[in-house]
Specification:
Blueprint (H helix, E strand, L loop, with lengths): L2 H7 L18 H16 L5 H13 L3 H8 L17 E2 L9 E6 L2 E4 L4 E2 L2 E7 L2 E5 L4 E2 L3 E9 L2 E5 L5 E4 L2 E3 L2 E5 L10 E4 L2 E3 L2 E5 L5 H4 L17
Parallel strand pairs: 1-7, 2-5, 3-6, 4-7, 5-8, 6-9, 8-13, 8-14, 9-15, 10-13, 11-14, 12-15
Helix pairs in contact: 2-3, 2-4
């Protein structure tokens, strides 16, 4: 029996391989996930070098989920199967407000965190002050959310959930926008568009995992100033 025939005749574990199947086109992220399973199986001795090479070759030629399923269906994951989890973000256009949400911090600071609703349009003005927006538990009211405004001798810090796409459309004069550790966007995830002007100030966007420096509490609201915002 050939390698491809042996793969097709085995039973697919429910927790291995792509979640969806059928005629849907496979993305680069899907191929990366399958590649990780194959590399792990080869390292653990569950695939020979020849089998591994054959499957990698088939992986590179795969176009749909059906093409990917057969590459991992006989590779039983040792230990407890990973628990299927839903997306780390929430989108609920029902009851969405058509009003612009405004946040203002002048010589002060303001924050939004926990469970709250991010409107389609948000204006954030930080003038000698700081605004902190934690979107990890927030509900997006629109598939595309826009945060604009002015950062003048102040700053805005945004934490986004995993999978959300971030687009930078800001303008900067002696300031900057710093986007780090947000990861790759997931299909169907909401899009966050950052706009507005950084004038001796800036805006910082981070992924869900904060560094030790970010987790340390700020001493004063002055930490939102432009001192750490000059990076592009």
């Amino acid at each position: 029996m050939t390698e491809s025939a042996r793969i097709e005749s085995s039973v697919e574990p429910s927790h291995v391989g792509p979640v969806a199947g059928g005629h849907l086109r496979a993305s680069d992220i899907d191929r990366d996930q399958v590649s990780t399973v194959l590399s792990t199986a080869f390292a653990e001795g569950r695939l020979t070098r020849e089998e591994y090479d054959d499957r990698v070759e088939a992986l590179l030629a795969a176009k749909t989920f059906d093409d990917l399923v057969g590459l991992t269906r006989d590779l039983v994951v040792l230990g407890a199967a990973p628990t299927a989890t839903g997306p780390s973000y929430a989108v609920d256009p029902a009851g969405a407000s058509d009003q612009i949400d405004q946040l203002v911090a002048v010589f002060s600071g303001t924050e939004r965190k926990g469970r709250w609703r991010l409107r389609q349009q948000t204006q954030a003005y930080a003038v000698f002050g700081g605004i902190e927006l934690d979107l990890r538990d927030a509900t997006f009211e629109s598939q595309v959310a826009v945060i604009t405004g002015l950062r003048c001798f102040g700053g805005v810090e945004i934490t986004v959930p995993e999978g959300v796409e971030v687009r930078n459309e800001t303008m900067s004069i002696f300031g900057g926008t710093d986007i780090q550790d947000v990861g790759g966007p997931r299909p169907g995830a909401p899009v966050l568009v950052i706009k507005g002007l950084n004038l001796f100030g800036g805006i910082s966007v981070r992924g869900p995992k904060k560094s030790a420096e970010q987790q340390a509490p700020a001493a004063t609201h002055g930490s939102h100033g432009c001192g750490g915002r000059g990076r592009h």
